[in-house]
Amino acid sequence: MDTQALLIPGAPAAAGTTTITAPFDGAELATLETGSAAHSNHALSTAYGLYRDRSAWIPIHERVAILDRAANIMEGRKDELVRQAAAEGGKPWRDSAVEVDRAIDGVRICIEVIRSEQGEVVPMGTTASSANRAAFTLREPIGVVVAVSAFNHPLNLIVHQVGAAVAAGCPVIVKPAEDTPLSCIAFAKILHEAGLPAEWCQVLIADDHTAAEALVTDERVGFFSFIGSARVGWMLRSKLAPGTRCALEHGGVAPLVLAEDADLDLALPAVTKGGFYHSGQVCVSVQRVFAHSSIAKSFAQSLAAEAQQLTVGDPLDEKTDLGPLIRHAETDRVHEWVSEAVDAGATLLCGGKKISDSCYEPTVFLNPPADAKVSTDEIFGPVVCVYSYDDMDDAIAQANSLPVSFQAAVFTGSLDIAMDVYKKLDASAVMVNDHTAFRVDGMPFAGLRESGLGVGGIPHTIADMSIEKMLVIKSPAL
Hints:
- This protein has 15 helices and 21 strands.
- The strands form 5 sheets. It has a 7-stranded mixed beta sheet, with helices on both faces. It has a 6-stranded mixed beta sheet with strand order 8-7-6-9-10-20, with helices on both faces. A 3-stranded mixed beta sheet has the order 1-3-2, with no helix packed on it.
- Helix content is 38%, strand content 21%.
- It folds into 2 domains: 3-250 and 451-471, Aldehyde Dehydrogenase, Chain A, domain 1 (3-Layer(aba) Sandwich), CATH 3.40.605.10; 255-432, Aldehyde Dehydrogenase, Chain A, domain 2, CATH 3.40.309.
- It has helices at 37-52, 60-76, 78-89, 93-116, 156-168, 182-193, 209-216, 230-238, 264-276, 296-308, 328-343, 373-376, 392-399, 415-424, 458-464; strands spanning 3-4, 16-21, 28-34, 121-122, 133-141, 144-148, 172-175, 201-203, 221-227, 245-249, 255-258, 288-292, 347-350, 363-366, 383-389, 404-405, 407-411, 429-432, 448-449, 452-453, 466-474.
- It is of the alpha/beta class.
């Protein structure tokens, strides 16, 4: 297996190598060169030099052409990209195919944004002091973008970070998740093939945490984009250089409310998909279902029956519904949390066992204790908890009781109930008669409180990576 070189033009000799393996069966997928803090510095010097040289900036029409060619190349390599994402990340083939389609569409969203959103006219002449003036804004790149990404959507998240940076006109350095760098590298190479100079999109496979931290905290960074754990994200934010802007996207313990009048035929497949998609390794995965006491037990039993029909196994098999967890240690951790809940008195309706070192049974609990880890922390595994309630306000209070807040949902046939729950739930988005994990790539996507900082979604990210620079013209002719 050939060793792939660092995508850092002109970099010194690699610090070492790392081997990427499939989480399902440990198969070796690739060997990559790794970089040290010296490589971080080299990449930053290159990127910062490009940003400071305004004559080197890539005009909008060229960015559009590059992104359009990149989308077309991705279309032609769809099967290859699906196979790679499924193999390195463990997301089943069918869901990885959806991810690749979304990533291609995301590149096209980047094009739509920069073609249509380029500033605004600022009203002048409305007071005597502003007479004889005209003012407007134009967008400029904010500076060097450093992006640190997560494993669970190895291609689409990179498009949200790197594609947006290219669209905004920023030089970008990306550190992909150490478990899933191959889709990131593939996208960077596609951008280069599409005409983006290699210096404008560099990829650091960090040799250690020192290299990654040196990259993120440098004063030459204009914008830091982070997707991953809250512990790491907030720690890195505390170390950013003065003036560096940032956006953080972490996880939640997503609540879904089933009102007494909920259409269970509609809710059941939605909760099954939203709770067990990618084995629960999604930041807005359905984890806590608050169901009225008249339906809670029967719904939980039906959910368990659905979960037991799901096929767990090889993500490259198109019949697989759930693939592996990203690491064996995660499988062990999920089992520890599940066992803790059982010991504390939770009713286990299905699952609760490791299938292998990498795969875990889809698991459904009824009424686990409120202080169990499955109730208080993001499990990032195939576990859904159903809690019964008699009073809706009590359910909402429990849903709002955690320091995290992201997306939420309610199932009801009543507009009044839907609006009441929407108003009272702590969330950045509330889905009515759909699961908490619904997302399209143009919509705002924001973790609140400990769940994140700023607003994601491609148009919002491009705006974050830009400044609106105003020009004010004074003339007696105006």
